[in-house]
Amino acid sequence: MRLARPCPPLDTNSVYCNLLQCAHFSETCVIAELEGEVVGWVSAYINPQQVNTIFIWQMAVSEKARGQSLAFKMLNHLLSRAVCSEVTHLETTITKDNQASRSVFRKLASQLNTACAESSYFVRDIHFGGKHADEYLFKIGPISTNAKRMIKIKEETL
Predict the structure, then answer these.
(1) Which of 2, 23, 29, 142 is the most interior residue, by most CB within 10 Å?
(2) Alpha carbon of 53 to those of 74, 132, 141, 142, 144: distances in Å?
């Protein structure tokens, strides 16, 4: 996706991969537009082995939309959707150098008044042949129904 390229340290997936994500997981993907231009993107899916967990595959915000809490707003919007009504946990993987994402997910956990646990997940030398930084699993939850209800109320008042 063109939006991921100028957003290091995000991996750029193939166009085919992004098209499949949008086609197969359209209910759990979010696109933000500003004046007809895509400025934000969240790709996510409900984990088939843990149906109460949504996994955030990728999130990007264009340079022109940064500083407006857009990533945070897109995650809130996603959690308020009907498809996430049974979701009690959110997971994602983040590299150590991606401080912006780390900050967004910690802020989300704080807003939801829940825990944010971090653990090693995919290791550079074991999983990536030394060609990619370690990925750390961020697990947020449990997310209460009341917390999601409050997100929805806030979103409706914007």
Answers:
(1) 29
(2) 17, 25, 9, 10, 13
